[in-house]
Amino acid sequence: xxxxxxxxxxLSVFKGAPVELKCNYSYSGSPELFWYVQYxxxxxxxxxxxxxxxxxxxxxxxxxxxxxxxxxxxxFAQEEDSxxxxxxxxxxxxxxxGTRLSVIA
Amino acid sequence: DSGVTQTPKHLITxxxxxxxxxxxxxxxxxxxxxxxxxxxxxLQFLIQYYNGxxxxxxxxxxxxxxxxxxxxxxxxxxxxLELGDSALYFCASSPYGYGYTFGSGxxxxxx
Lengths: 105, 111
Known about the structure:
The complex is a heterodimer.
Chain A: E1 3-5, E2 10-14, E3 19-21, E4 24-26, E5 32-38, E6 45-49, E7 60-64, E8 69-74, E9 83-90, E10 94-95, E11 99-104
Parallel strand pairs in A: 2-11
Antiparallel strand pairs in A: 1-4, 3-8, 5-6, 5-9, 7-8, 9-10, 9-11
Chain B: E1 5-7, E2 10-13, E3 19-24, E4 31-38, E5 42-50, E6 53-57, E7 64-68, E8 74-78, E9 87-94, E10 101-102, E11 106-110
């Protein structure tokens, strides 16, 4: 069965500090992993896909198949990064319970 | 605007009632997914339709049902509503299962 685990419910960091949001997955096949962001209970927005290996809003994520992880990282947090972050695995999209990132000024 | 339209945005109803939530996918997207978001359970996948046919089922209760019509819009029917069904219900669409785009959700409050 596919499962996504985000061990931290809440992560608080100071502005300018590095951020790492953890995500581990369980899936027997070849995984496709995503990070979604949700601001103030609005709709979810796609942040990153592992297949594209892109950087959005300064965030990056690397798929580590050995550790079955897909952690989200940003070197310098900004206040506008405060939101809920969900890691997801497809198909179909199964979400972790999310991590609330709070960036303190 | 994401291109995925959900109506209504808010819905307040009493226990035991039945409601229908509507989703119009992005133009050209054949897959529609329904999710329930609650504070304690997070985002739960309910069901997926692809071009009118049920493709995958998640944690959907028997009191809930869905369908996708020939014009590709989808409806989620929730019946015999309970207080615990209060949640945000999101719809998402994608072409061939890639690049999910989410709607703004329907906030259901059961009183």
